[in-house]
């Protein structure tokens, strides 16, 4: 019987694996598909995540020192209190997996889980696979992403797309721009490569017929995109459910991390960092055998960031609100500092 099994091999699951290995534990990680598959996720790193990946020897991390909001063809710049970063999510997952394996970590890929029998009294979890095999464990750490398998119905009000472009507009700068019902971020992830991730309401995409056609429209009207050679890009797109704190089942000795715990609007730029942060806190509370306190702690940890992300998201979706928010923050540096603190940038 295993002491602890991590289900999910994304950034959250792999960060938890490394965190536990660093504490002398020997968890088993199960991944349904292949580690390192491209995902429609942003690649910006809040300061904590940038520092933690570098501590683990993952990188090189591209430093990001400021964000530039493009409003009415003008850039409004805000310097981060502490240097943030950016890095390929695929490379992060592969690097975390390689580090874990060097430390003796066990990673099983292509594991199709059929069902999980919950423990009763002192019995363990029983994980059943499609192959007919099964494995038992005292503790499970769930890192299965934002598509909560326990939800009766999942709606997808958004569509997103992600591209890598072989061009960098300005080193160490995250660019943000918007369109009614949509917004995107453009950030260098290396000296030669940038990542662009866009989130749009489904109703905004529909008149254009596809994400690609909508993107072509953006490149024609947005001065930021006009500067970039789009002839050679890698393209990835997908639907997105609502961003929120998930409804967590009341399981004994279970820890929910990453998007399985809560998913953040891309506007706040905290999703990557949340995956790492929640994973490390789960590792800490696991060592104290206290999943109940972990859940209480994380609710407090993420509450203000979820609210901040929602505020920024709805502001970015509405150009008039964006202009007002940026005007207010430019006039009040203390408010900007307060918002940065709430968003996890200090």
The coarse overall form would be: globular
Find the CATH superfamily: FAD/NAD(P)-binding domain
Sheet with the most strands?
Answer: 8 strands, mixed
Q: What is the overall number of helices? A: 10
This entry's quaternary arrangement is single chain
CATH architecture group name: 3-Layer(bba) Sandwich
Round the Cα radius of gyration to an integer and report it: 20 Å
Percent in helix: 25-40%
Unreliable stretches, pLDDT < 50, 5 or more residues? none
CATH topology: FAD/NAD(P)-binding domain
Structure class: alpha/beta
CATH class category name? Alpha Beta
Strand order of the largest sheet: 3-5-4-11-12-13-10-14
What is the mean predicted local confidence, pLDDT? 91
Distinctive features:
346 residues, 10 helices, 8-stranded mixed β-sheet, 15 strands
Protein architecture, described:
- With about 350 residues, this protein is of the alpha/beta class.
- The chain has a single domain, classed as FAD/NAD(P)-binding domain, CATH 3.50.50.60.
- The protein has an 8-stranded mixed β-sheet with strand order 3-5-4-11-12-13-10-14. Strands 1, 2, 6, 7, 8, 9 and 15 form a 7-stranded mixed β-sheet that branches.
- The radius of gyration is 20 Å and the shape is globular.
- The mean pLDDT is about 90.
Give a short synopsis of this structure.
This protein is an alpha/beta fold and 346 residues long.
């Amino acid at each position: 019987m295993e002491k602890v099994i991590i289900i999910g091999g994304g950034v959250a699951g792999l960060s938890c694996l490394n965190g536990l290995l660093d504490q002398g534990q020997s968890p088993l990680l199960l991944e349904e598909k292949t580690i390192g598959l491209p995902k429609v996720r942003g690649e910006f790193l809040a300061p904590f995540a940038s520092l933690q990946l570098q501590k683990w020897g993952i990188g090189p991390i591209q430093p990001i020192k400021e964000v530039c909001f493009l409003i009415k063809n003008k850039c409004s710049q805000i310097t981060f209190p502490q240097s943030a970063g950016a890095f390929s999510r695929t490379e992060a997952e592969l690097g975390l997996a390689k580090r874990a394996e060097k430390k003796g970590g066990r990673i099983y890929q292509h594991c199709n889980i059929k069902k999980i029998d919950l423990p009763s009294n002192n019995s363990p979890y029983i994980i059943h696979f499609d192959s007919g095999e099964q494995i038992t464990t005292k503790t499970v750490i769930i890192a299965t992403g934002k598509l909560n398998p326990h939800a009766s119905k999942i709606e997808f009000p958004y569509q997103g797309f992600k591209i890598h472009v072989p061009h960098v507009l300005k080193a160490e700068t995250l660019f943000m721009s918007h369109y009614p019902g949509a917004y995107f971020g453009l950030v260098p992830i290396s000296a030669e490569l940038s990542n662009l991730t866009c989130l749009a309401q489904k109703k905004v995409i529909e008149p254009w017929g596809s994400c690609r056609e909508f993107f072509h429209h953006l490149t024609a009207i947005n001065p930021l995109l006009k500067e970039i050679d789009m002839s050679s890009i890698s393209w990835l797109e997908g639907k997105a459910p609502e961003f929120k704190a998930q409804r967590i089942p009341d399981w004994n000795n279970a820890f929910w991390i990453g998007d399985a715990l809560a998913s953040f609007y891309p506007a706040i730029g905290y999703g990557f960092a949340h995956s790492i942060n929640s994973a490390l806190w789960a590792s800490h509370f696991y060592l104290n055998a206290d999943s109940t306190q972990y859940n209480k702690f994380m609710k407090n940890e993420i509450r203000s960031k979820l609210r901040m992300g929602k505020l920024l998201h709805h502001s970015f979706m509405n150009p008039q609100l964006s202009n007002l928010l940026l005007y207010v923050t430019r006039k009040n540096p203390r408010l900007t500092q307060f918002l940065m603190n709430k968003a996890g940038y200090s």
